[in-house]
Amino acid sequence: MNQPVLPAAVELDADGPLYAARKQVYPQSVSGTFRRIKWGLMAFCLGVYYLLPFVRWDRGLGAPSQAVLVDLPNSRFYFFFIELWPQEVYYFTGLLIVAAIALFLMNSLGGRIWCGYLCPQTVWTDLFYAVERMVEGDRRERMQKAAARGTMKLERFAEITLKHSIWLLIAWWTGGAWVLYFNDAPTLVQELVTFQAPMLAYIWIAILTATTYLLAGFMREQVCVYMCPWPRIQAALTDEWALNVTYKYDRGEKRTSLKKASELRAHGEAAGDCIDCYQCVAVCPTGIDIRDGAQLECIQCGLCIDACDTVMKKVGREPRLIGYDNDINIQRRQAGKPPIYRIVRPRTLVYSAMIAGVGAIMLYALLTRSLLDVNVLHDRNPVAVRLSDGSIRNAYTVRFLNKRAFDRVVAIDIDGPNNATVHVVGADSVTPDRPMIILGRDATTELRVLVTAPSEDNLEKSIPVKFRVTDIGLGEIASATDNFVSP
Amino acid sequence: MAEQNDFDHVSGKTTTGHEWDGIKELNTPLPRWWVLTFYACIIWAVGYWVVYPSWPLLSSYLPGVMHYSSRADVAVELANLEKSRGEKMVALGAASLADIEKDPALLALARARGKTVFGDNCAPCHGSGAAGAKGYPNLNDDDWLWGGTLDQIMQTIQFGVRSGHAKTHDSAMLAFGKDGTLKPEQIVTVANYVRSLSGLPTRQGYDAGAGAKIFAENCTVCHGDAGKGNQELGAPNLTDKIWLYGSDEATVVETITNGRTGVMPAWVGRLDPSTIKVMAVYVHSLGGGK
User: Fold this and answer.
1) For residue range B201-246, what is the model confidence (pLDDT) as tens digits?
2) What 3-state class would DSSP assign to A181?
3) Residue A448 is nearest to which of B8, B12, B285, comparing CB atoms?
4) Where are the domains of chain B?
5) pTM
6) Are B72-167+265-284 and B184-258 equal in CATH topology?
7) Do A386 and B5 make contact, defined as CB atoms within 8 angstroms?
8) ipTM value of the model?
9) Structural contact between residues A393 and B140, judged by C-beta atoms closer than 8 angstroms
């Protein structure tokens, strides 16, 4: 059995070190396919986030004209042609289910695509790094400047001030965009500029400014490594076919310089394609060495692929020494077999089917969503009242929901006991046999409705009664069923 | 479980020495910012003790320098609620009873508020849903002793029935038996006559003519010639299907023998006018209002 060899640096202290000092990361700029994809996605995500509140959507007079709006005081959510009420929160449940399974699907296809390209932490950190690079220079310069911390000149001080100012500006804009989703954006912008916005808006902007500035400017990869649960969950969801950013060790070891490698090969000894230039480490935003294999810290952004490809092109070797791949293919190539990629496999099929299924259910629910609804609650005490002429009356609390953006007139009919009549308390009965009421737009109306049946000796103890609400103008119908009880 | 520290050659890290089924726990130190945040939280907690109520003492607690109390928060919230409600209640107070019923918003407000004050003040006798009980009228039906219009209901709530208030509804169903006005067999006869007015079956061998005669001599003053009652006097309609104390012969005989003098307290002076108003609207809206 192998005896572990203790490196000299490791001391077997009883408690170990109290804490680990952070290793500052200075990612180098890089260009290539994945960098371009990342720029594109960053522009798209930030563009949507910052500009969406300003998109208008005409919903008619009196209704908000903002395409995406969370109207908390009136408890409404608007999304283009969709308007949701609080009791329809299940659409969000559906959306969350789809989002979760989409995350699983992404993961089984291409690993941590979310982490590397779409996660807000990645997007804003990437943006903040770009600012840092623009102001302070690339990796080498930043490292030198950081090392020369003790001897700070005015120029350096100005540089640091500029960097933090731009960061704070971005952070402030991020917080500002957030509050715009909860208010009419143009109005709020005007109020914010003239210092007339509600205090809450300023507080939220301050909170979001602080979190953006701290998380993207300072915490960065620490969020992914220590704070985020997804790397842990992801490890449990992956399988052997998922494509992950992988160093292809099948392209030979050992890693050595171009010159040394040709010497070794001339002598018939093994040498790998990797020239050990550490470019993959230099560009990594979490500061790891991808050649150590899959690891928790890797957000799989693919920047090391771009860095390595650039080098391979320079030295005239085949690109994609690092690429989206998996261990199965590495072993197949080592065994001289062609690699196989199984995009379509039970796992991805099941995830896709689940997304399609939940999506279809949501779409169906959304398309058949009623804009007129009625709920009925029978009086409990008394359940039934006998009137002086012997007839029987039941009282109900009826709640009408008008989800349209205009007032409308509805008529109330009942199917219940023979010759029963219906009366709405407080409603002027222009048509005594068929009460009509006005339902305010985009609101609920609660009314007391009385149903009276003439006395019959053999009236059943309980008869189903159906309340049918008909929109006089549009012909829309909603109904609810309760019981008519005899004393 | 081994307790001594160990070195894991795969990860290059020490372990805590804890082992479960051959799996050892790596000794991974916390990041510095985490440790600092932890200490900051401890310092924050100390500040919290000083500012807010914290340690329990023998008979009280340390109140903290701010003397904060969530109970005081509730008091403020309640005061604010009363204030915001005040404006609406003023609007309600200004509107006439009939106008309230015509305005859906005012009606909804009056009904909501009325339900609460009804529960607080009226439910002990009339029941939480105003279903009433023997001797206590059901307010959901359309039979009213003292009238079922908004104004009449308002009047009854304000001054009560036989309440002792100067303006109260006052009258009495006389105790015909106890006073010796009618003999027991006469009472049984007239009781059967009264039952027959609303179509209830009568006792075998009952003399309808005698019953009508007794009724005409003793009862019509209040209940009217046809027994339809008189709301001016609070005399119930004897021809309908609703019986405050019960319609069986024994109960009717008891009523005629001993009389009935149900009491409802006057609410004027106990409740403010706008509260009495919403109560009237609420009772009227239960379904039986005229």
Assistant:
1) 999 888 999 999 999 999 999 999 999 999 999 999 999 999 999 9
2) coil
3) B285
4) 72-167+265-284, 184-258
5) 0.81
6) yes
7) no
8) 0.80
9) yes
Quote the tokens at residue B119: 């529960």
Pick the CATH number of A372-485 from 3.10.450.50, 3.40.50.1970, 2.70.150.10, 2.60.40.10: 2.60.40.10
Angle of helix A90-110 versus helix A230-237 axis, rounded to 10:
60
Cβ–Cβ gap B108/A226 under 8 Å? no
- Give the pLDDT band (50/70/90) at residue A430: low
Residues B34, A381: C-beta atoms closer than 8 Å: no
Residues in A closer than 8 angstroms to B128, CB to CB, are 381
Please give the pLDDT value at position A337: 94
User: Residues of A with CB below 8 A from B7's CB?
Assistant: 4, 6, 10, 12
Whole-angstrom distance, CA of residue B8 vs CA of residue B15: 6
For chain A, give every domain's residue range.
Answer: 33-236, 239-334, 372-485
Q: Do A388 and B131 touch (CB under 8 A)?
A: no
What are the φ and ψ backbone dihedral angles of B178, each rounded to 5 degrees? -65, -35
CB contacts, 8 Å: B237 with chain A: 388
Percentage with pLDDT > 90 across chain A? 75
B195 alpha-carbon distance from chain centroid: 34
Q: Which CATH superfamily is domain B184-258 in?
A: Cytochrome c-like domain (1.10.760.10)
User: H or E segment at B210?
Assistant: helix B208-218
Residues of A with CB under 8 A from a CB of B: 2, 4-7, 10, 12-14, 16-22, 219, 222, 226, 379-382, 385-390, 393, 395, 425-426, 428, 438, 445-446, 448, 450, 455
Q: Which residues 6+ apart lie within 8 Å of B12 measured at CB?
A: A7, A10
Pairwise CB contact (< 8 Å): B131 & A381: yes
Among A5, A20, A395, the residue with its CB nearest the CB of B287 is: A395
Query: What average pLDDT does chain B have?
Result: 90
Q: Is the pLDDT of residue A200 over 50?
A: yes
The residues, any chain, with a CB within 8 Å of residue A254's CB and separated by 6 or more, are A270, A271, A272
CATH number given to B72-167+265-284: 1.10.760.10
Instruction: Please judge whether A16 and B27 are an interchain contact, meaning their C-beta atoms are less than 8 angstroms apart.
Output: yes
Is A393 close to B286, i.e. CB distance below 8 A?
no
Confidence band for A397, pLDDT divided at 50, 70 and 90: very high
Q: How far is B138 from chain A (nearest CA, A)?
A: 8
Helix/strand/coil for B40: helix
Nearest to A226 among B14, B34, B102 (CB): B34
Residues of B in contact with A17 (CB under 8 A): 29
What's the mean pLDDT in B119-141? 94
Q: Does B209 touch chain A (CB under 8 A)?
A: no
pLDDT digit string (tens) for B43-88? 999 999 999 998 899 999 988 999 999 999 999 999 998 888 777 7
Q: Please state, in angstroms and rounded to a whole number, the distance separating the CA atoms of residues B290 and B282.
A: 13
In sequence order, what are the residues at sequence separation of 6 or more whose Cβ sits closer than 8 angstroms to the Cβ of residue B245? B134, B135, B251, B254, B255, B260
* Residue that wins the pLDDT comparison between A64 and A9: A64
Buried b (16+ CB within 10 A) or exposed e, B271-289: beebbbbbbbbbbbbbbbb
CB contact under 8 A, A381 and B127: yes
CA angle A59, A60, A61 (to 5 degrees): 135
**Cβ B29–A16 below 8 Å, yes or no?**
yes
> For B265, which DSSP code?
-
> What are φ and ψ of residue B71, in 5° steps?
-65, -40
